Amino acid sequence: MDQSLKHKKSTRSILELLKKERGIDFSGYRQASLEKRINGRIKDLGFGNDNDYVDYLHYNPLETDLLLDSIIVNVSCFFRDPVVFDHMASEILPGLGLRGSDAGSGHISIWSCGCATGEEAYSMAILLKDLPQRGLPPLAGTIFATDIDPEALRTAEHGCYLSNRLKYVQLGHLERYFSSSGDMYCIKPEIRQMVSFSIHDVLSSERRIPTDCVFRHFDIILCRNLLIYMSPETQISMLKNFEKSLSVGGYLVLGETESLHGLFQVKFEQVLGSYRIYRKIY
Question: In CATH, what number is assigned to the domain containing residue 219?
Fold first, then answer.
């Protein structure tokens, strides 16, 4: 059998095992990227062929978790892409607050999709909490943060991070919303309680939004640096889901190398130059 076909067959076997053992379906991901990460793990462990690694996976549950860590990229930090968060604080959140006042509601809902270890969701909570510090009216918000990786969510719920995750955190935010514990910085309870973390597979056909969400639509959806790992067909499916889940006038925030497919561009306007912040216009 051709070597590339052997790799593809082994990759399918491994992905079927992950789906069976961990309930995670990677069929919508870019297959070339999956093969690269799996092959990297096989080489790191020194296996001579793919079949030996497949056998090893069947009898070593810990390796299943380590392989998932290799496949699922959970690299994040607070206020990643500072210009995006500055625009959130100065324009988007105050604007949503004014819209809510006009509609008789001072509350917004936010979904951090693919939240990894929680830095993005907590960054949004800090911005909401900090509005009065900027001389702006207070704005209440509920933040739902979801991921498919339970280990990452446990870290998020714990809310403690090494200093390298805080390189974009302003000194005032650090003093007001974090407490230090050894070489770790922990989110204070007033911020932690603003975020609800849960497992959710964005590719699931059974539920469009997080299980514990009581809102039909969100004012802001952040899904940054997740689409790039998906096949083009899956990207379109995810964007359709986000479009349905956003309220009119709500915002979709993507990663810096991601963009809307042409199908959706008539329904959204880009609001900050080349940065991937889109407002749903109808």
Answer: 3.40.50.150
